[in-house]
Design goal:
This protein is 43% helix and 2% strand. By secondary structure, it is mainly α. It folds into two domains: 32-163, Cytochrome Bc1 Complex, Chain D, domain 2 (Orthogonal Bundle); 189-310, Orthogonal Bundle (Cytochrome Bc1 Complex, Chain D, domain 2). Helix 3 crosses helix 7 (151-163), helix 8 crosses helix 11 and helix 10 packs across helix 11. It is globular and about 60 Å long. The relative contact order is 0.11. It binds heme C (HEC) (2 copies). The site of one heme C has 26 residues, from helix 6. One of its GO terms (molecular function) is heme binding. It holds the Pfam family SoxA-TsdA_cyt-c. Keywords: Heme, Iron, Metal-binding.
Length: 313
């Protein structure tokens, strides 16, 4: 090979790599140009001052885009009806992301299109917003994935983009991921059952089957989330319950109450996630997942709560 050709091939090769990196970035940030990306990352150090001010649905523009946004809203708020063929339980996204993801304290979905794609340890890779939505579809909704390019998936993303207006790319949002309890006290299932019967059954029913996805969703049984969902972890369920329940009386439960309730709820039967062995492919699987094995241990009286709650690995 002549040296000139060698250099040309080499340059082509470098060009291909740079082009590939550029394309990957361009794909990941969904149409933002380089300047916007730089501005966005420079801003993100001040994000704790970000105000929570998602636009009103009354201001959705007319036309095709507006229709998609409103369809997205309906899908999020009325998932079990509007996407019946995909949903495997009796929940909506609103069952956990209150107010269709607009409630600031209940795992708000405002800003999602600004922070995805991102690395997710449970998947062991970079996850797009579409894949993250489908993650909740197959776990929390115990259902099926929306096909790529389906009207449903596009509409939900349009809705998320709309409610994420003015949130800079990569923003560190103060309202995000606040529903996890760091030091979960060792629970008592019996005490959890007692509090449940006293404070939760008016909306969630004595048998946990609920009164409706947006009035008191199913907490266990076949109409609830499967044991691969985020809320099937004691730390997440205890954190969620402490911050958000009982609806109307939020903030009245102690950490101990919330832990007892989480242990009681997660000791009941629920749909089984078939792919536990594929989660956390790079290790670090949390110990506090209440899967079928751990539910059986509660029944047998052999569960070691302390070990589940104190060690991560
Ligand atoms: C049973 C409760 C539940 C239901 C129902 C549910 N989710 Fe989630 N969702 C969660 C939890 C828990 C998390 C993780 C939050 C955390 O880690 O703090 C989450 C996370 C997410 C995230 C990523 C949030 C982030 O900050 O990165 C998106 C996006 C999402 N859900 C979308 C949806 C959509 C869309 C639906 C309906 C199709 C849905 N979820 C239904 C419980 C639920
Ligand atoms: C006044 C009615 C009401 C009461 C009482 C209530 N909840 Fe809820 N719960 C709701 C509603 C409504 C939602 C849906 C999300 C939202 O709107 O906040 C919900 C959602 C939930 C969820 C997430 C959805 C799911 O399917 O897992 C959990 C967990 C939960 N509640 C637990 C409890 C516990 C534990 C108590 C008792 C301490 C309780 N709730 C008391 C109305 C209620």
């Amino acid at each position: 090979m002549k040296s000139g050709t060698g250099i040309a091939v080499g340059l082509l090769f470098i060009g291909a790599i740079l082009g590939g990196v550029w394309l990957t970035k361009a794909f990941f940030v969904e149409g933002l140009d380089a300047t916007e990306m730089v501005t966005a990352s420079a801003k993100s150090s001040n994000d704790k001052n970000l105000s929570y001010n998602p636009p009103s649905l009354d201001d959705v523009p007319e036309g095709e885009m507006g229709e998609s946004i409103l369809f997205g809203y309906e899908l999020v708020n009325d998932t079990n009806n509007k996407a019946e063929q995909y949903v495997g339980n009796n929940l909506t996204c609103t069952s956990c992301h209150a107010g269709a993801g607009l409630d600031e304290n209940s795992s708000s979905l405002v800003g999602m299109t600004a922070v995805y794609p991102q690395y997710i340890e449970r998947s062991g890779g970079i996850v797009t917003i579409e894949e993250r939505i489908n993650g909740c579809m197959v776990r929390s909704m115990n259902g099926k994935k929306f096909e790529a390019n389906s009207d449903e998936l596009e509409a939900i993303v349009s809705y998320f983009k709309y409610i994420s207006k003015d949130i800079p790319v990569g923003a560190d949002m103060p309202w995000r991921m606040n529903n996890s309890m760091e030091n979960v006290p060792v629970p008592s299932v019996a005490n959890g059952e007692e509090i449940y019967q006293k404070s939760c059954i008016t909306c969630h029913a004595a048998d946990g089957a609920g009164t409706g996805p947006n009035t008191g969703p199913a907490l266990w049984g076949e109409d609830s989330f499967n044991d691969g969902a985020g809320l099937a972890r004691l730390s997440k369920l205890a954190g969620y319950v402490k911050n958000n329940m009982p609806a109307g009386g939020e903030g009245t439960l102690t950490d101990q109450d919330a832990s007892d309730l989480a242990a009681f709820i997660l000791s009941q039967d629920r749909p089984v996630w078939a792919n536990h062995d594929k989660d956390w492919p790079k290790g670090n699987r949390p110990k506090d997942i209440m899967d079928k094995e751990n539910r059986q241990k509660v029944k047998d009286g052999t569960i070691d709560w302390k070990a589940m709650l104190t060690t991560k690995q």
